[in-house]
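Retro notes
What went well: the complex prediction finally ran end to end.
Inputs used:
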Amino acid sequence: MTVAETYKTDPVKGGPDGGIMRRLNVGTGIAAGIILAFVAHRVVGHLADDHVHQVDVRATATMVGWAIGFMAGLGAFTGPFRWMVGKDLTHADELFLAGKDQGIGRYFRFTTDHKVVGIQYLVLTMVMLGAGGTMAMLIRTDLISPNSGFLGPQTYNSLVGLHGLTMILATIIMVTGPFGNFVVPLMIGARDMAFPRLNALSLWLLVAMLPVLYSAAFLGGIPMGWVGYTPIADQGPAGVDAYMVAILIFAVSTAVAGANITTTIVTMRARGMTWTRTPIFVYGVLASVVLALPAFPMFMAAEILLLVDRLMGGGFYVPNRGGQPWLYQNLFWLMGHPEVYVILIPAVAALMELTAVFARKPLYSFRVAVLSIIAIVGLSVTVWAHHMFASGWAPDLNGPFMLTTEMISIPTGGLFLVILGTLWRGRIWTTLPLMCTYAMLWNFIIGGITGIYLSDVPLDYQLHGSMFVTAHFHYTLMGAGLTGAIGAMAYWFPKMTGRMLGKTSGFVSFWLVQIGFNVTFLGMFMVGMEGQPRRVVHYDAAYHTGNLISTIGAYFIGTGMLILLYDVIASWHHGAVAPINPWGAKTLEWTVPNPVPLENFAVLPVVTEDAYGYGEPAEAEPAPVPARVGAGSDQGEGAMT
Amino acid sequence: MSTESLVNKEALAPEEPEDFGERWRTGVILIIVADASFVVALSFAFLYLRGINTQTSFHPGGTGVASLWWPWIVTAVMFASFVAYRFGLEAHEPGRRHFLNAGVVGVGGMAAALVLNVVEMYRFPFHVVDNAYSSAVWVIAAGNVFHLVITVFLGLGIVIRVQRRVTRGARDWHVRIVGIWYAWVCVAALIGAITVTVANGTVGCPLPPDQPDPGARSVLASSCSSSTR
């Protein structure tokens, strides 16, 4: 029985069915957002007319007005308001919110169905990655020669900051957003997320955030890079206000999503799904959101303090008023380093999940995988200050932070061993998702080992702030994280869309991206070791060759990504119809029909064994493709492996 | 996962109110974890800046010091409201009609604490721009105001719902879960009050005796020397 049905059997004095709630959608949200932004701009502008920080006050009020208006116009506050006045949504309204019988329109409403939210997250992530990627192409084009003049210094600075922030935010949500929402409830045998309205809220907050974030480009940019370091942030243009408000919205979204996903996994697993029978991808998502939950409020606090500095003349980061930029760096990196694992763990866990499927072997040492994930989560909150070695903060602590940072490579190595052990003597079925596993192993080895270099204090003093660092974190976040997300998309695409992703274009895209990626960032390692600083628009002619190589590699990546985008759109539109379980996988999401019914399972499953019972490699054959079953047919309901 | 397991009819059991409540309780506790991280970050910022005292300007001598009366009075009122709410929760019965009086006292107390908190901010003997100390005290007070606004919203909602007899079955859990939030905001206010008290113990000199806020005299003149480390 669903929560909605619980309500149905427990009739109360609810409000009437329907009402204005059913007329709200993204269009009304935009209209309300614009109106409230305009009102806030005028009213606050009038009140702060002679205020010394009036530009920042007015810009911030406008952006906050937009976000609140957009969410209100979309209907995000209808539920809480009706809760407060004791007129809960009726069963019919709950079904309406879930998107029942609404066709494509449900993707443009405050829809609560986890599958709709998952698809919305997927599209949003692709939009953000596309925007960030386009900026990367512009940056690399500018760097094709020492003084190309393609972008002015101000534009370049702004683009570097926006590219970084866009990509970080996109990579944080790229696995837990689309797949954590769409796949996890199916994988654990639940009918929906624990809090469906919070689920929609977390998604639409991000949509509200995007115009705020990109308004920075028109408000002087974010000259301090994606990290938002003070004191530049204290003195920067109104673009910094956009940065702050965007981070605040993102942090709220992350907290809401984290609480929701964690509650779902902890309390809604199917009967019999003990922790030892829970698929490794679920662990990965859980670790990610559990880590994000306390981490992002730290970042939020840092931005609140910055907001007080910029809008009210506060003294948190201003040394002559007793403030201290190191405070910002500490709060930022208390979020910033766990955030790396927020990105990486679910991506690697997705690859572990699919590696077992395509190797036709049980996941090698499931417990080592789980313990490694737990160890990474624990250690990741003890390493933040290795980003501050060169800042001069607490030199006595350099040694301990070097040690903890190097220690985290041990459980990370554990994850490598699990994947390699799973592949070892497996009956390999080479598909695009599995190719992503190979690519991740290669890239993450390079990213991980160069990370150990950077955790070493003397070497960090040499390499800090150079292109070497840029290459290192691209190898981890893009080479491992994004590659993992692409693998996850290729793997779950049939379940999410009901279509198979095109094979040939998928492989072409894969090789272009991976070759281009290594060309780009190996070149960047080279110029970084030679001393080229990052975030600098004009560089010495001695670094020309390396930069030229990197730019050529970047064009390969861009071309490959465009092919992948084409593949996704074309396959989604007219790709081969996917069977229920095209990979012969054993996790629960592959037991439900395509498209997945509103309440997922006709009969809730009871789990009696783990998800990796593929048998010995010698006996295992790729599972035969099951017969296709139409959505909602009797055969499909509660379908089986 | 086997085929047989998926058609086990036993699985189709109605969701118990306790399961529903367990889920809500877990969710609220996780939101509180995130909020606690935020509160701790603010407290850390205050104490870190006080400890490092950059350019001996964290709180230069002679500038205003926050009253210790206000944060502790606000915290005490909040705790009293929470106790009233808990008292109401003890009278557990379907529909929770007996909860109503205690619920009204609870939300009224939180509203009073909100007003006191705003008055406190209005009466600060400094401006937020003065120094890092004044900024930090202001932010901690503002954070408490934010907590109280949410608490009054939730408290009011619960009272209305009980009055409308909406709190039945699984929804009874809403009453208990709002109680968890009440407890947390009291703890958060306590953290804020302790932080200001600890910081006040070593900063600044008292303002002249004619300054309007009696709490500003709570810092002894003997501690002034520590403000110019």
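What we learned: Chain B touches chain A through 69 residues (CB under 8 Å).
What to try next: split runs per interface for comparison.
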